[in-house]
Amino acid sequence: LNDVSATLDPFNLRINLKTIGTDLIYKNKIIGIKTIKSKISIKSLLNKKFSFTEISISTKSLIIKDLIAFIRLLNNDPKFFIAEKIIKKGYVVADLKLGFDESGNIIKNYEFNGLVKDGKINFFKKFSLNKIDFVFQINENILSFNDIKISLNDNNILIPELAASKRENEYLISGNLNTNNTRFVKNEINNFFDKDFLKLDIQEILFNSKNNFKFKINKNFKIKNLDIKSDIVLDNLKLKNSYKLENFFPQIEKNFIFKNQKLKLEYKKDNLSIVGSGEALFQKKIDEIDYEIYKKKNEVKFRTKFKISKNPFKIDFLNFEKDKNSNLEFNFVGKKNINGNLSFNEISLKEKNKIISFKKLILSKKNKIEDLGYIDINYKDNDGLKNNLKLTKKDDNYLVSGNSFNINKIIDDLLDSEKNKKLS
What we know:
single chain; 7 helices; mainly beta
């Protein structure tokens, strides 16, 4: 200590103390203190009891890990243990206020406020968060952080608000997160998600987003009741094409690119919904796509509309080809369950007066047709021949009506041998 000033407060029967430019030394580590203020109860002092009622400390610029280690000496709260484990670097300027009872024990109405600059957190194994700046307020019941700025792989992330409130033996975390022109390439994406988890080979992603989230976390870092709501603008998403679709898309590219996509994403208690629309580049020119995806427990439901304008499209086994200057619209409505079975309520293709529609189509894990309830085909093929065919399932039998020069080919390609026997 250098100089200590004392002021008598006779109305509250206490003495106010203050010192400036103090160093706190613990195990050869020096913590620079700007000011220390404390209050002494005159009554307790005269009765030879513990007389400090509170102490307030304002720090100089400190190394965060040193400060947290000091605070844990005073109050070994789990919050500070968690912070000490994940924070690797950074500086802090803070104000700490502690109150004491008559026995000298720290009471729970402490306050800890301050500013963090140039922080670094290793929260995940394969990447770290750098250039962290934020303002914080901490007390017994809540941790509050504001204006958080983070750099993740040279991408800037802003978290305007983040709060953690204590609920028995766990904490409720809530806040919002914004990203702007955030870009990740394949190797970085694999650090976030396992390739087998996504089932997609993502080459690159560029997006902006606004996200609100909340979840609970216990002292073992187990997260539950995750709740996320996001508005996402997907500027560019490049996926490697691993499908053999040349028989349908003659000019198909090596990569699928989604551009200018607007999505709404919601996740709550294992239920996920994604609704979006935008541009899709599967061939040489841009097409349009709308989609809805809903995951509930072990079932995924989907609805997709794909509009092809200036690109070619064909179905060889139906001798069908899209007119060059017309619009063709695909619609897929269906679901997939945990067993791997894929069923379509409807698959329809419409172009001017052309219609190809399948309903109640069920596929096995190996994409073999297990059942088909209805077919409606009405178009002229590449040879100018009229195909007007309806196939309706009733019980275990099929009723076929209309005329088609491709009927045998249609049936052979669509249905397995057992179904063919019933149709024969």
